[in-house]
């Protein structure tokens, strides 16, 4: 067990009550950022299938439902406490939301089963190799013509290198520490993110929103 990094599930379980307020306070351009997550979705009344990885309390769902009010959401999150807030918040949408309290790194995903896969502020806890493997799995899970929408923190190339080195260094003394299981912030630079998406087989990649700290990327096959 690490003193420096907290175990992921309990990190978010403990913070679930204050999470939404915290995000609104720390995220530059909060409303624009989430509006652009919504902007990645087509306006439709169809019951499109959406997989949300690391859905947390479901902040992004409000913006997705504005574009696709009949979307059927599968919300995956390690933290049961975060998912409880999501379920309470979207009381009126209960028939459209299914929650899965599990890791998106280990759940089985049927090929070609979602129109959209969205993940917001969650994948920056993963090292490059693990993230590329996940991107590959997600590409296979999308239906042909579907879209992967990722909104997350980004850093400069120098900061990316510094954070990765810091983590590698720490891992030497803590070899059992796994990225993805602990709350470790190692965001990609935008350049690395796009390279990783290409390596996973995505071809049509568009950055639709960017600030100095975060971006929204839409990737298709
Ligand atoms: C910063 S929150 C983002 C929540 C929400 N998407 C948002 O934008 O507000 C990150 C979420 O990812 C979840 N998470 C982290 N790693 C995960 C994993 N391997 N599987 C499922 N959920 C995970 C955490 O439990 C947490 O709720």
Sheet/helix structural class: alpha/beta
Structure summary, number of beta strands = 7
Q: What do we call the CATH homologous superfamily?
A: Vaccinia Virus protein VP39
Unreliable spans: none
The description of the largest β-sheet is:
7 strands, mixed
Q: How many angstroms separate the termini?
A: 39 Å
Q: Just name the CATH architecture.
A: 3-Layer(aba) Sandwich
Core attributes:
alpha/beta; seven-stranded mixed β-sheet; 39% helix; binds S-adenosylmethionine; Rossmann fold; 221 residues; 8 helices
Description:
The chain has 221 residues and is of the alpha/beta class. It has a single domain (8-220), classed as 3-Layer(aba) Sandwich (Rossmann fold), CATH 3.40.50.150. It is 39% helix and 22% strand. The chain has helices at residues 8-15, 19-26, 30-39, 59-67, 80-89, 128-141, 157-173, 190-199; strands at 49-53, 72-77, 97-101, 114-120, 142-153, 204-210, 214-220. A 7-stranded mixed sheet has the order 3-2-1-4-5-7-6, with helices on both faces. The longest helix has 17 residues, at 157-173. The protein is globular, with a radius of gyration of 17 Å. 36% of the residues are buried. The site of S-adenosylmethionine has 21 residues, from helix 1, helix 4 and strand 2.
Short description:
The protein has 221 residues and is an alpha/beta fold.
Describe the SSE topology.
Layout: H1 8-15, H2 19-26, H3 30-39, E1 49-53, H4 59-67, E2 72-77, H5 80-89, E3 97-101, E4 114-120, H6 128-141, E5 142-153, H7 157-173, H8 190-199, E6 204-210, E7 214-220
Parallel strand pairs: 1-2, 1-4, 2-3, 4-5
Antiparallel strand pairs: 5-7, 6-7
Helix pairs in contact: 3-4
The structure holds S-adenosylmethionine (SAM).
S-adenosylmethionine is lined by residues 8, 12, 23, 54-56, 59-60, 76-79, 82, 103-105, 120-122, 125, 180.
